[in-house]
Amino acid sequence: MTEQPQPFRDPQLPFARRIDDLLRRLTLDERIAMLHQFAPAVDRLGIGAFRTGQEGLHGVAWMGPATVFPQAVGLGATWNDDLVRRVGEAVGNEVRAKRAKDDRVGLNVWAPTVNLLRHPLWGRGEEGYAEDAALTSAIAVAYTRGLRGDHPHYWRTAPVLKHWLAHNNETDRDTSSSSVRPRVLHEYDLRAFRDAVRAGAVAGVMPAYNLVNGRPNHVSPLLSQQLRRWTEQSLVVCSDAGAPSNLVDSERYFDTHEEATAAALKAGVDSFTDHGQDSTVMTGRIRRALERGLLDETDIDTAVRRLLELRYSLGEFDPGLDPYADTTAFDTAEHRALAQEAAEQAVVLLKNDGLLPLDPGVPGTIAVVGLLADACKLDWYSGTLIHRSTPLDGVRTRFGADRVTFAEGADLVRLKCAAGWLQIPDADADADAGTGQGAEGALDPALLAGRTDLPPLTCGDTPSELALVDWGNGVLTLRDPDGRYLSVAEDGYVRASADEPGGWIVQETFRWEKVEGHAGGHRLVHIGTGGYVSVAADGVKVAGVDEKISGHAGTGAGPAATVFEIEVVERGEDAVARAAAAADTVIVVVGNDPHINGRETEDRTTLDLPAHQERLWRAAHAANPRTVLAVTSAYPYALTEAAAVLPALLWTAHGGQAAGTALARILSGDVSPAGRLPQTWYTSDAELPGLLDYDIIGSRQTYLYYKGTPLYPFGHGLSYSAFTYSGLTVELDGDRLRVSVTVTNSGVVAADEVAQLYVRALAPSVVRPLRQLVGHRRLHLAPDAGQRIEFAVPVTELGHWDVAHGRWTVEPGAYEVRAGASAADIRLTAVVTVDGEPSGPRPVLRHGLEAADYDEQLGTEIVDRTKTDGDAVTATALDENELLFRRCDFAVGTRTVEVSAAGEGSVEITVDGRRTTVDVPATDGPYDYRGHETPLTASGVRDVQVALRGTVRLARIAFTGATE
Length: 964
What we know:
There is one protein chain. The chain is 21% helix and 27% strand. Strand 8 and strand 9 form a beta hairpin. Helix 4 runs parallel beside helix 5, helix 9 crosses helix 10 and helix 12 (333-345) packs across helix 18 (659-668). 54% of the residues are buried.
């Protein structure tokens, strides 16, 4: 007789019943332990350990070698949902394959990032897909479907979307609050998450570090009010690293960690990522919260149930039935080809006056120059390269090494001090064979230490030549002739030891500081520690934090900061000009290092290309007009002058392991470029809103609302072929628009085109997008071939969030449908009339006015009404602020007005030019809202203007009718 398995192990039962059984068997302590990122095994039940969190943004990260695909923003630039789904599948398979050999590899993948690329100076822009919610959603759905797999019950991996919500700044990221009005919330930020969740391939989300409307994302009511109402599927919410502690330590939102942890759990956080692998701190807080009555066991069980459902879906309890358990696909020929295909499709041709493509059959030499010409850069969320192709590698392979010359363009310098020339000692063979930074897989690469097996720098009679690069903002790297970067290890000594700049705190960047009274003298500051570089008897080292000095060398309590004189052996632009003059064509490769001047924890400060790299392309172009500028970067640049004078420009994100091969195939015409910009490229910093201004409607941000002329528009990208659009038709079919258009390749080469579909309301009652993407299709066409493509656009896409009535509304009227090759390159238009629902005036006598439901604002921000729910508004500019509420219906008239407010000051309400002031006496703190009433008469439909004085936090305004 076969023994029946315990119900929680019985695969014949549904997951829900099995989880019910397991929950009854687990003790309270065992359940609490499951709420930490590193959940221990339950040996008595035969349940293994489990961890949430495996980075996999564009390949398996932090776990050693893996296939490295283009950065996420590069995947967004492909505008190719099918391609991205295949990339997700490959990444998921490599997660599974690595997991089979290393149980540190987790199956709960923390990817993709769906934060919208609202602002081009955001330091983590490389992690997102696009500034547009529809494109971001489409790419995210594709990637998560690939990661998840297509089995109805078991998942290949369990993707978690990052970072909920409205998170686009690294500056003060754990204390700053994004002021997000309801329209922006519903029309923009929520949508990027909503469509991916509804598609059914998402296992959960990760809240962001920041606050939204004054409330930390880790206690956001939107987790329950929005996220978990989008699907009947269980969703796990995993905290970001250290964020639970931030609720007290940096944000000071709660007085105790027990209160904070309880609030996060009740808000919907299920898994706490805090204090690394030491779960005792968080589990202790949960236990004490229970003891104090801040939680009850049902709160614990709700979170554990979600985590167990995730584990069941990954096949943990049914290894014999898990269809992905035996996956071995890792670094396969298919994955390598896919990495190249993705890199090729991500390249965007920005400008071409006929110089490109370069025919490999035509004799001539090519100079490949620039700081990134021989680089294959990785970012914080990259795996370790197995294969590597730089632009120089790719061009040499495609055109022939004998036809290609190279000049990096770094400044070659020698540094001299009182003790002699800075020298790099010879390393013995054993030390030279040591592993470089980041070569080994690690759960947290921030913990990787610099090398100490190499001798530190010294000073002597023989100078060492160093390659100096200024990456902008005065941030420098120095590299020895063997390609090793000067770096500082934990012992404080400076060594030539790093393969690339990297680490959570980059140890390979420096800054010059001029010395007063010393002509040509500079101190060298190590940015990572803030200490000065000094020459000591036992080698060159960096002063400790408590040894920093600001006076002249030889003063202060700590060791003297050495004064260096810089001898320039050769300027980088001179080497580039020489190479350019001797070549028939020049390819200048510029861009960023993903660990410097723009990354997680650090926003960019400007759109400008660093001056060092400006000098390089200018020198190349002055020497040779046949100059191509290839920008390899995680971000847009304001390349206004380059775009005006250079004959050809391309952009690609850091393209992963096949980046160089892909670029060469584009340059040679083997592949016609068809990448499209996922972000607007602006002409200058002056065109940008403030980094912390999240009101894309009010400040007219992104291609949706921007009224200026960008350098390159959203969706822009050229081809080596030409395409015509014809036969645009639009038909209203129930709740959808059926749109058809024919795209024909009218050129002479086979190529991809990305057809883009936009809509705009012709006579909106409120500010609406000037153009809004509602569909896209990447298609491959032979010369003279055409294809009829169809889009089914839900009529709801024409709508907006109606703040007057608190609902999604599609207004009746005419809408223009636009088909074209970019947001600005519109080829055909058609008009369709929709029978929607008129918004109507605000019924203020019945519902009053919620302060955050304004139509326009000036000098205010939205804050938290309470610590659990609701919004209020307060002034940021006391002398000039206003909330404008349009079309308020006072019917036959009002008698009084009542404001609900906290703080101290007054609320000024103006209707028809008549101002009424409501005094707000001081209340007991920011959450003590009280009603204050005063007479006010108004009738008919009128605009209402509200100004806030003092520290008032306005929650709502109510009116009493004249007949009440």
